[in-house]
Amino acid sequence: MRLAELFSRTLKADGQIEFVAYDGSRSGPADAEVRIEIRSPFALSYLASAPGELGLARAYVTGHLEVVGDLYRTFHLLGDIELGKLDAKTTLDLVGLLAKHRFWWPVSPPPHEARPKGWRHSKRRDAQAISHHYDVSNRFYEWVLGPSMAYTCAVYPTDDASLETAQFTKHDLVARKLGLTEGMRLLDVGCGWGGMVMHAAEHYGVKALGVTLSRSQAEWAQKAIVERGLQDLAEVRFMDYRDVPENGFDAISSIGLTEHIGGANLPSYFSSLYSKLRDGGRLLNHCITRPDDNFPFKAGGFITRYIFPDGELEGPGYLMSRMNDAGFEIRHSENLREHYAKTLGGWCANLEEHWDEAVEEVGLPKARIWRLYLAACQWGFDINNIQLHQILGVKLDGTNSHMPLRPNWEPPQA
């Protein structure tokens, strides 16, 4: 069987994608909106060495497999790629083809794959995992994220709002859920480039401390704090949240950190944050979640090796239970799944707009990793494979939550 036809059958393209292979074969409509090109035998060798998602990703990252057309649209056309669910004949044909390439064209994993060492979620290994993803290049992140340098789900006040407006709205929503007012003390764990820290200081007069395991983020944030004249109120440290010596904070924000903690460590994580708060203080936990906990979590090979080593997702119910067990009274939960799909669409557009600069800054393989990752995640939020929850908890002051009877998170009208 010719290669293009086998790929079309394997990926179940249903006549919506054109396939072109190095053996001269073609399959699918010539006017299809997406074309997949198998450019060399090495594409098959990568698939043979890691059948499924990881092998296909390696072939794409190295350029031996190319997608001509919108990558995000490609995911919608293909859906989940599960080679284990092929019919018997396709499986037999594919196994025979890949077996030959595994030995005729041997390959090693391409560069940029993460293999952190040490005990999972130890301080040392967490530092390696965070550095792998976040210490890419501050300039690269500026191009992808835009001026806000916010690398978490934005909140769109309207469907046509800009990414910058949506990121401002997200930070302001967190501030209002936490009840921030002038003179309060905020701890922002996993603070990234300091967006929440600077927002709280500038717009609410809060004395804010952020901590991150990325040295590049901390250096960028401290420079930005000085440039904006916020050094009397805002600070970002290169530090593990477990090593913060201060206590008695009025509020804690955790925006995009819980995914790196690990399910087994969530009880100690939330207990640690609980101990840092004064009585009546609030915690806002903002993180990627999965729709349910009906099956053990297993991250895909591409995400694990290239994007978030040791990353783990839990369902919102599990997170709320662990917060509750740590002593927090749960006061509010909100799913922002659609907002994250829009956020990722904005990042994808930014990357394409700055593609040449990004390639020059981080190299073509790394840029292709990010193109694949952002498009895949946008698709994942679209189809409800993954979600994003904000969960608000309060450390009771005796039995007093210090919460209004009917909270209103909407900003005051001008």
Automatic annotation (TrEMBL):
<dbReference type="Pfam" id="PF02353">
    <property type="entry name" value="CMAS"/>
</dbReference>
<dbReference type="InterPro" id="IPR003333">
    <property type="entry name" value="CMAS"/>
</dbReference>
<keyword id="KW-0443">Lipid metabolism</keyword>
<dbReference type="InterPro" id="IPR050723">
    <property type="entry name" value="CFA/CMAS"/>
</dbReference>
<dbReference type="GO" id="GO:0032259">
    <property type="term" value="P:methylation"/>
</dbReference>
<dbReference type="GO" id="GO:0008610">
    <property type="term" value="P:lipid biosynthetic process"/>
</dbReference>
<protein>
    <submittedName>
        <fullName>Cyclopropane-fatty-acyl-phospholipid synthase</fullName>
        <ecNumber>2.1.1.79</ecNumber>
    </submittedName>
</protein>
<comment type="similarity">
    <text>Belongs to the CFA/CMAS family.</text>
</comment>
<feature type="active site">
    <location>
        <position position="377"/>
    </location>
</feature>
<keyword id="KW-0489">Methyltransferase</keyword>
<keyword id="KW-0949">S-adenosyl-L-methionine</keyword>
<dbReference type="GO" id="GO:0008825">
    <property type="term" value="F:cyclopropane-fatty-acyl-phospholipid synthase activity"/>
</dbReference>
<keyword id="KW-0808">Transferase</keyword>
<dbReference type="InterPro" id="IPR029063">
    <property type="entry name" value="SAM-dependent_MTases_sf"/>
</dbReference>
